[in-house]
């Protein structure tokens, strides 16, 4: 019988309080944009952030034999710490591997969490401390303690925190794997990512395309920035800075600065202008990095010609997804799924389903070469 010990953190979780969910939005988007900028530009990384990067960075060898130093990064508001983040961190802590000295390590220990609200540090530390993740205060008084309703000002304001978080990591000189917290990880995504040469990798809709060749254009389909990898190069850092600035300018002009719809435009503009020699992009295969907008069982690309839309299968008679599809999954992301309470339920459900159909989390992870830290 398979061990059920991994289920204990889920069974201990309490339901999210609903009172916080109705906290009102209390700011304008131009005011929020201004709060991120000084007279000379976007705020620099804080001392807490730079120290967190030093502690969290993971030195690894990529498929081309190059050394990379990576941190995982995420953002969270107060509401997320009541349930969803515990599930997310449990997921990352289950992705274990051998460190350079032979000791056991896991992905949660390499995660930096930027806290969006002013009062979230203690709650973040209480959750993250169990897993070795690091909380960094990036509080902004404009954000409330509640859930951020879709297309509210706070919803659009998330983009300022996300892009600034990514930029801070790149500025300190490490590659950034940014993860939305409404997903569960089943096998280590880093070996797959490290086998690709593109400087920027993002997930996208159910469509059959290659992701191994560096490009200056993404497939002309929808992207999803719940999982993005950025290599720490000068041009990538510049591109993300321009992304931040564009979001701010949209807000100043009275528009809605949505990070999701602006991402592809900015990276394609830079990559096409400077050529793939200086910055390249690619979209990860959707059968390996599915998300809920595709449907309940991700994306089936079997017998689908290249550059055609994939199939979006339903669950089988026993209410699970087909094993052949699930074996390909590195993670499952839960956008298009309602509020954080419902996302958390789905994250638990998919974790249980994976264990039932495939086996223990991390059992299908590929090997990864972890290097010793450079002498300071």
From TrEMBL:
Domain Nucleotide-diphospho-sugar transferase intervals: 143-282
One GO CC annotation: Golgi apparatus
PANTHER family from the UniProt entry: UDP-D-XYLOSE:L-FUCOSE ALPHA-1,3-D-XYLOSYLTRANSFERASE-RELATED (PTHR47032)
InterPro entries: Nucl-diP-sugar_transferase, UDP-D-xylose:L-fucose_XylT
Keywords on record: Signal
Name of this chain's protein: Nucleotide-diphospho-sugar transferase domain-containing protein
A GO MF term: glycosyltransferase activity
Species of origin: Astrephomene gubernaculifera
Signal peptide stretch: 1-21
């Amino acid at each position: 019988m398979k061990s059920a010990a991994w289920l204990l953190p889920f069974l201990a979780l309490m339901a999210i309080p609903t009172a916080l969910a109705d906290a009102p939005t209390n700011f304008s988007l131009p005011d929020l944009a201004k709060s991120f900028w000084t007279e000379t530009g976007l705020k620099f990384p804080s001392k807490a952030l730079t120290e967190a990067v030093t502690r969290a960075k993971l030195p690894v060898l990529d498929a081309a034999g190059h050394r990379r130093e990576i941190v995982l990064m995420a953002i969270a508001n107060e509401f997320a710490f009541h349930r969803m983040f515990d599930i997310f961190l449990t997921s990352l802590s289950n992705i274990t591997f051998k460190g350079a000295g032979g000791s056991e390590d896991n992905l949660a220990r390499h995660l930096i969490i930027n806290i969006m609200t002013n009062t979230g540090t203690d709650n973040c530390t209480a959750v993250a401390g169990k897993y070795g993740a690091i909380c960094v205060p990036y509080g902004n008084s404009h954000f409330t303690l509640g859930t951020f309703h879709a297309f509210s000002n706070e919803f659009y304001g998330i983009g300022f925190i996300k892009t600034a978080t990514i930029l801070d990591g790149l500025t300190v000189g490490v590659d950034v794997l940014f993860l939305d917290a409404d997903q569960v990880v089943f096998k280590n995504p880093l070996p797959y990512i490290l086998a690709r040469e593109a400087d920027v990798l993002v997930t996208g809709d159910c469509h059959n395309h290659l992701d191994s060749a560096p490009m200056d254009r993404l497939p002309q389909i929808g992207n999803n920035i719940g999982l993005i990898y950025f290599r720490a190069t000068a041009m990538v850092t510049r591109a993300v800075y321009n992304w931040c600035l564009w979001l701010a300018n949209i807000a100043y002009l009275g528009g809605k600065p949505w990070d999701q719809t602006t991402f592809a435009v900015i990276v394609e503009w830079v990559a096409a202008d400077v050529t793939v020699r200086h910055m390249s992009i690619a979209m990860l295969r959707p059968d390996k990095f599915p998300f809920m907008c595709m449907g309940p069982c991700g994306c089936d690309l079997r017998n689908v010609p290249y550059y055609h839309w994939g199939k979006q299968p339903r669950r089988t008679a026993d209410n699970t997804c087909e094993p052949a599809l699930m074996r390909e999954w590195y993670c499952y992301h839960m956008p298009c799924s309602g509020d954080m309470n419902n996302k958390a339920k789905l994250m638990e459900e998919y974790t249980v389903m994976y264990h039932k159909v495939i086996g223990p989390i991390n059992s299908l992870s590929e090997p990864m070469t972890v290097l010793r830290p450079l002498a300071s």
